[in-house]
Amino acid sequence: MILSMGGLSQISWFQFLPVESELSSLPDKSIKADQKDAATLLVLSSHLQLQKEGFLSTWTNSFVGPWDPSQGLHNPDEKIKLWLFIPGRHVSVVESAQSAVVKLRVVASGCWLAPGDSEEVAAALSQALRNRIERALLGLSYMRFGDVFSKYHPPQIEESFRRSHGYCNCVKA
Question: Which GO terms describe its biological process (predicted)?
Answer without folding.
Answer: positive regulation of transcription by RNA polymerase II
